[in-house]
């Protein structure tokens, strides 16, 4: 269950404002988790500062301090409990405008039941599964998964794909072509290997552009911290140029990836680096990335 808003957050809500944070800036990729719940099996002490509880109150302070006024929560555990906790947080905090929850993709009957149960949840705006933790290279091509994703498309919900490169990025393009009615959100630009070899970067770019060629795809400028690679506007220049050329600003959206991004620096740092790139565009293009693409994709 989420923590209640802190005093500053309650004061902002009561005043109808966000302490200077702008509703024109939406973080499309934010996580919360309660370490004591026994969930998040992937999260171990080896993850350092991430092996802690991260609450809505903490997130609110970080976002508002950086001038970001709204956020979409994204699942961090393949459990119903994680989704339920996010929905509770969204009900308690008006700056949380949407929730991307978990769906059991390999069980179409269960997926249908979950989708039906979400019909009365106004905050639910998308689905995701931690496919990057699945050792099977062709998981997105499994017949049961495709059947469930067809149900997702019928429900009018987008499907987020995390950390797609190197195993799943090629499948994302195939999926987009075979299910054109499904909106696919490529988290973290498909996870470009910024610290990798030139061959790895070339493979990522080729597969990334193949995804972008399908009009039912969008991508998040999120999760671009990479061990062994500098996180700065100049260091991100290549992937930024490729993303902008492939998708255009109308199909790109900002995501802070808090608290995972804290491994590479503060939330303010993440926002500042991305702002250096985004705010060099025209006002309309910048608005698309900061807010409009997220609003259009998630309906929030």
Task: Show the helix and strand layout.
Blueprint (H helix, E strand, L loop, with lengths): L6 H9 L6 E9 L25 H10 L2 E7 L5 H13 L3 E7 L5 H10 L6 E5 L14 H12 L4 E3 L7 H10 L5 E3 L11 H15 L4 E5 L15 H11 L4 E3 L12 H12 L4 H16 L2
Parallel strand pairs: 1-2, 2-3, 3-4, 4-5, 5-6, 6-7, 7-8
Helix pairs in contact: 4-5, 6-7, 7-8
Question: In a few lines, what is going on in this structure?
Answer:
By secondary structure, this protein is of the alpha/beta class. Helices cover 39% and strands 14% of the residues.
Question: What would you note in describing this structure?
Answer:
The protein has about 300 residues and is an alpha/beta fold. The protein has one domain: Metal-dependent hydrolases (TIM Barrel, Alpha-Beta Barrel), CATH 3.20.20.140. Helix content is about 40%, strand content about 15%. The chain contains 10 helices and 8 strands. Mean pLDDT is about 90; it is low at about 1-20.
């Amino acid at each position: 269950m989420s923590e209640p808003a802190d005093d500053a957050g309650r004061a902002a809500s009561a005043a109808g404002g966000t302490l200077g944070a702008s509703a024109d800036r939406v973080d499309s990729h934010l996580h919360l988790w309660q370490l004591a719940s026994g969930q998040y099996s992937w999260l171990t002490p080896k993850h350092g500062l991430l092996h802690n509880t991260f609450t809505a109150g903490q997130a609110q302070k970080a976002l508002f301090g950086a001038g970001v006024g709204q956020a979409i929560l994204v699942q961090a555990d393949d459990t119903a409990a994680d989704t339920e906790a996010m929905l509770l947080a969204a009900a308690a905090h008006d700056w949380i405008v949407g929730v991307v929850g978990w769906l059991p993709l390999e069980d179409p009957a269960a997926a249908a039941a979950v989708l039906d149960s979400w019909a009365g949840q106004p905050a639910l705006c998308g689905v995701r599964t931690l496919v990057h933790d699945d050792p099977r290279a062709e998981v997105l091509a499994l017949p049961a998964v495709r059947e469930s994703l067809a149900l997702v498309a019928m429900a009018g919900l987008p499907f987020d794909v995390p950390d797609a490169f190197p195993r799943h990025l090629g499948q994302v393009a195939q999926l987009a072509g075979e299910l054109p009615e499904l909106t696919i959100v490529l988290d973290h630009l498909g996870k470009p290997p910024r610290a990798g070899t030139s061959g790895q970067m070339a493979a990522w770019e080729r597969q990334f552009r193949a995804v972008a060629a399908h009009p039912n795809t969008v991508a998040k400028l999120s999760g671009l911290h990479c061990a062994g690679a500098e996180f700065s506007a100049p260091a991100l220049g290549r992937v930024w140029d490729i993303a902008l050329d492939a998708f255009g600003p109308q199909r790109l959206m900002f995501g802070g990836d808090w608290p995972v991004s804290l491994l590479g620096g503060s939330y303010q740092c993440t926002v500042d680096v991305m702002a250096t790139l985004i705010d060099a565009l025209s006002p309309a293009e910048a608005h698309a990335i900061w807010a409009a693409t997220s609003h259009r994709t998630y309906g929030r």
